[in-house]
Amino acid sequence: MEYKKQIEQLIVDFRTNYLSSVSIDFVIFGFHDGQLKVLLLRWKETDKWCLPGGRVRHEENLETAAYRSLQERTGLSEIFLEQFHTFGDVLRYTHFSKEETMGTLGLPQDVLDGFPGRDVSVGYYALVEFARVTPTPDLFTDECQWWDIDQIPLLLFDHNAMITLALKTLRRQLSYQPIGYNLLPEKFTMPDLQQLYETILGQTLDRRNFQKRILGYDILDRLDERKTGGAHKAPYLYRFNKEKYEKALKGEVLFVG
Amino acid sequence: MEYKKQIEQLIVDFRTNYLSSVSIDFVIFGFHDGQLKVLLLRWKETDKWCLPGGRVRHEENLETAAYRSLQERTGLSEIFLEQFHTFGDVLRYTHFSKEETMGTLGLPQDVLDGFPGRDVSVGYYALVEFARVTPTPDLFTDECQWWDIDQIPLLLFDHNAMITLALKTLRRQLSYQPIGYNLLPEKFTMPDLQQLYETILGQTLDRRNFQKRILGYDILDRLDERKTGGAHKAPYLYRFNKEKYEKALKGEVLFVG
């Protein structure tokens, strides 16, 4: 069977050219119009879902491996990846046993001979506007799907825990870094930006406090336009000031006593 | 020579029992009375300094390996370690070449035969009151020393970069988590707590804003005592409310719009 043969070839390739005990996994969050989703892959010829992942070549920097793997598994590129945690439990099988997982993946039993049977996996996350990207399945994958953050199924390995921690990290990020560039249209209203924050946090925010705090970051330019087509009292339009935004990204909004 | 033999035995042990391409490094920050320091080890019979580090056994969780390694290398235990970044460049030799480093470590050339010669290293950091702990050197180490954060020498591997990133992470942490428990005496003044924050941030803070923000976290109990022995207008004493402090640690101070 063609697929099995390809898998076997890949395993030989892995044994020769890749670090034996390090893997990479990706939590790609997708935001669009008040929805927060996560990109999942359905493993070839099964009904099991998991995060996209990859491995590190001997002569390849970890970060390079991350971008290469994400592209190979999903076709996605030009996405800013942020490392968030390395998962190193010996048994990273939360919902499905090791045997069940190996069976699901269609891996021959002797795959374990060449590997210590145990990966330390470096987790990366990203946040994209999911209407703007189109993931494409790779050899191991029947389909790529955006799953609603509240409806993630039981995943292979410890991938549910990875999503939980990535989401916690993303939420933390809102306290020290600006967010929103590449997620909103070029011109947006304060309610649009607030909706983005609320969607990530999974809770509503006070309108006035939100506006005060966001304006305090000094990363927005208010335009001399209001949103058209709405009811009366149309809200002002804003735009990120790219220079200030990037400065804030670098400097971070640290504790300001 | 005794030491060389022990090293060779250890290498055999490593090849057999440890993951081949994963290591661990520790940035242990020490705070005391307005000073911030980092724990460094001087490599046996050399003048080269580095961070304490370790490796992961095949049947050992990464986190377990971290606590075990820290204890083996420095004698330190009961320290809360926080993972902050995994360093995965192929050549993690910033100030000294690979050959120079191998020479310094007194490692035989064929040490590279058993390893791919390349580790992905998981970084952990901790913050302790350095007057309360006494690190003790291990087999590889002539001395353990607390170095002032502003006077770190050129270190082996990429350890200077590790310290820089760990410090950035520690500073970030002040924006979303309370800090200070186990670093200050049981009863302390607001200026004591402010000094802790200023020492970590490396900058002075406005007294009133600091007080307002810290009290806003609702993690302190103000005692009915003032500090004695000082001048007039002795400051009030505070104590962490353990229950609220731990709740804040879990819940985190996220973006509050």
UniProtKB/TrEMBL annotation, chains A, B:
Ranges in a coiled coil: none
A Pfam match: WHD_NrtR
Every Nudix hydrolase domain range: 21-169
Signal peptide, first to last residue: none
Domain of life: Bacteria
Family annotation (SUPFAM superfamilies): Nudix, Winged helix' DNA-binding domain
Name of the featured protein: ADP-ribose pyrophosphatase YjhB, NUDIX family
Taxonomic source organism: Spirosoma fluviale
